[in-house]
Amino acid sequence: MATFLSRLGRFSFRRRWLVALLWVVLLVGTGVMAGKAPAPPPNDFSMPGTEAQQAYDLLDKNFPGLSADGASARVVFRAEDGKVTDPEAKKAVQEAVRELGGDPQVVRVTDPYATRSVSTDGSTAYAQVSYGVPAAELEETSRTALQDTVEKAGSGKLTVEVGGNAVNAVAGGHSSEALGLAVAAVVLVITFASLLAAGLPLLTAILGVGIGGLAIKVLAEPLGLGSTTSGLATMIGLAVGIDYALFVVSRYRAELARGRSREEAAGHAVGTAGSAVVFAGLTVVIALAGLAVVGIPLLSQMGLAAAGTVVIAVLIAVTLIPAALGICGRRIGPARAKRRRGERVGPKQAMGVRWARFVARRPVAVLVGGIALLGVIAVPAASLKMGLPGDESKPASTTQRRAYDLVADGFGPGYNGPLTVVVQAKGGGSAKATAENVAEDIRGSKGVAAVGQPRLSASGDTAVVNVVPATAPSSTETADLVHALRAPALASDSDARILVAGSTAMNVDVSQKLSDALLPYLGLVVGLAFLLLIVVFRSLLVPLKAALGFLLSVLAGLGAVVAVFQWGWLSSVFGVAVPGPVMSMMPIFMVGVVFGLAMDYEVFLVTRMREAYVHGQSPKDSVVSGFEHSARVVTAAAVIMISVFASFMGSDEQMLKTVGFGLAAAVLLDAFVVRMALGPAVLALLGRSAWRLPRWLDRLVPDLDVEGERLGRDQDGPPRTGPDSVEASTGAGRGPVVESAGSGGGGH
Prior knowledge:
The chain is of the alpha+beta class and 748 residues long. It has 23 helices and eleven strands.
């Protein structure tokens, strides 16, 4: 592996302009195709195999106006002086209803007076607006007409607010993402002490994300990729793109400091650091692509799209980076260690080396302390509640949140999340009598605030009964009501099929589906990555340590998410408008992404330790050596990744906000507690046994030479001189060059 990648790096360095041109052509080509591609389809929120989805499928077939895919809005009217049934207020409400019904994309508008959607005290009423197209396909004129009607109806005596997915989202810019990139730029400049060397990872990462985003747009229609699929791909692509380039550039400068020519340094950097990049990227791809086994289309799309950007980041790191290093030439110099004034011996020990020696001396104390810290942070994860965020999670300044609060105050919290009971007669008979019996049974059920009259389909074999819970949509009591309505005892008539839909019912089904898929997903992803790490490290205990450390990281990350987004700790600091259930897909999604990223740092850090061990150092010295060469750049990479993820907390999308915080917290804990504290402590305790592989397994596992042992034998030798050598351009041959502890320059 190292030999092949070294040759690839040398080729890219020599044919630098050709390689750069190919990447530019790829960017331009995807850009042209993306410009001609149709708009991406709306997100597929379907949940195949769930009862709620079966109910929605029946609604799509028999009640087109109630389609779950169509956009909807709820316009809420509140009389500030008097009642909404007063003549003046009633006239304004009915005029608004007529205007709403005039939109060509609207298929149905309910009159609150005809549907009795007026509160008991007469202060509040609401009209339901149903559109014939999904929210993503709603024309801007329709959104504008909705908002204009709401503003026109409002007055000093009548407050009008609107909620639902048909409402224009608060415009969100890219300032938060730009802030993340700015932090990354500062970290890179500090790490490399060179603007040009710092700019390379940023530019190549942006290039990779650009190609990936354009490719997603090109493939959106043929592959059915949703309109928000690119959000996660951008987040992951930026993070790994910067990190992978960072490691290759750092190793290149370290090899220059050893006296290699520029071409040799590029080949050696791609052969060693590039090997770690390839295997780290494979673990991320496995984790992201493995999300497809869950069976949720949206999750599969996001995972596969993000995996594609990771593949692009890996290819850029092993081809475009050495080409760019060749183009930059002498403007990127070797890594040099700073000496204190008057110091006559070697450089001051780097902080990473001092920390590694401390851990090697006190491994038990570090191990116990680290596990205790992660255990405390993970405690909130035991009370995890999952759900799909609605208007209640939006800031109080938005009209959606105000509409939610008006409905809750005027009618009760359950009116914000009504349930839909679908009754289908078997054999094509009439469902009228059965639906009436079911409605009567539900009225006597605990936790029910109201039950509507059954509505029959045009064929008469299907009926719909609206049920309003007495509690809020995200409450445990409402979930219990869903289970009660699905109980077999309710279907007393054997000739009927009864299904329950609604946001709460979908939450219950999604949570169950994700819970059922978690163990198979973990088995698949961890199993494949475990086998991959056995090949990388030629050890059983090191991959086992990596997997157990990941479990600690993800539990602690989930604990932090629950504490902030569900319990509300520091919610104002992190911009959480209303604490509530965690996004249903967040836990399994976080498991997949964090596992892949955790293995990144495991591969980057431990391969340098194994490289030192393979070259004859003792187990404890190899741990220190790994930190000496990698701690600085791993720290920089972790800070960059944390900054990129944290920047997405400024998004208006609740899912991206939650994912950004969760990933930033998990990477922080994994990089600095698990990989840089618990990992070296375990290796110090295990000693030589950490690097052993049973003989029978050693014969089966291919030797891919990830640490570059054969590469070193093939390429080590006296430094070359000439116009492209470091000696000729920097004077490195006139005296000893000390490699920086971080392999990345910038001193200690």
